[in-house]
């Protein structure tokens, strides 16, 4: 069965798929997030071409009867048992949960079913997010709703935010009209602008980065670490996901003969310290989730630097984290390459050095 997603995370993703500035809020309400979590819990997911008899259908009451305690029962056997009980009636659900030692405390009242059916499900259906079983009387008590599989795919809890946003864009491209897609794009761009991260470069110019933890770390590196650590810092380039590169001092790039190609293996930030002679280059990775300067990554970046006629002896490497207590730091500090540094945005006055005191046997 598919992995369970929390209602809160489902709601957050719904607000990206159907931004509230462009769509009716019934598409991404807390009830809608709860519905996604509940339908995935019981595996009410199908393709448009699946035979009706093979589809696991659900009622609005399946969503209404779900509770936080139930969602914590994560084994396939428990989920199947709850689904079987919910297929029958609320008394069966109550009896099952009694056997589990958890009270029957539905998240929503029974009369919420009409809101769910007539507003959220109907709106989802208009956007090809959910399928309704055909051929049944309108007053049929049989389960008739199932999420369409490519919509349900957007709620894989293991999907990173970057991958999810790209998948959501592809889903909208596939299922929405050009006008509807334009409305969604304008709303998302407006929201991003509100939360964008403005970075002031050492020369006083600014660059606007996409919202997110990585951008906040980059901001700290450029505005706090670089002025304190380097004699004359010059930001040459900042790269973001999606082959997006912000150039810093273009004249300096040309003078140094450095060509920035988004298709290259670029660091998150490239800063030159113009005070020493020759110039020293700092190759920096912002670690919001992963991506520290490992031995392999250091080697790849040195190969890129060599293509720009930058000698290895003039390269220094920094892995920048949000905090020593952040999960990426706890997980990946052990993977730092020798002869590199680490810096933490919440302790800007400190720096860690990881260097090799003695040569290895291979180097002797």
Describe this entry's structure for a reader.
With 364 residues, this protein is an alpha/beta fold. The protein contains 14 helices and 12 strands. The strands form 3 sheets. A 7-stranded mixed beta sheet has the order 7-6-8-9-10-11-12, with helices on both faces. The chain has a 3-stranded mixed beta sheet with strand order 1-3-2. Helix 14 (327-332) links the parallel strand 10 (315-321) and strand 11 (340-344). Helix 5 (76-88) runs antiparallel to helix 6 (90-100). 32% of the residues are buried. The mean pLDDT is 90.
What would a concise description of this structure say?
The chain is α/β, with parallel strands linked by helices and 364 residues long. The chain contains 14 helices and twelve strands.
Tell me about the largest β-sheet.
7 strands, mixed
User: Which strand order does the major sheet show?
Assistant: 7-6-8-9-10-11-12
Please give the alpha-carbon distance between the first and last residues: 55 Å
Helix content: 40-55%
> Which spans of ≥5 residues are poorly predicted at pLDDT below 50?
none
Beta fraction of the residues? 15-25%
Write the layout of secondary structure elements.
Blueprint: H1 7-17, H2 30-41, E1 45-46, H3 60-64, H4 68-71, H5 76-88, H6 90-100, H7 112-126, E2 130-132, E3 145-148, H8 149-152, H9 161-175, H10 178-195, E4 197-200, E5 206-209, H11 213-229, E6 233-240, E7 244-247, H12 250-256, E8 269-273, E9 280-287, H13 295-307, E10 315-321, H14 327-332, E11 340-344, E12 352-354
Parallel strand pairs: 1-3, 9-10, 10-11
Antiparallel strand pairs: 2-3, 4-5, 6-7, 6-8, 8-9, 11-12
Helix pairs in contact: 1-2, 5-6
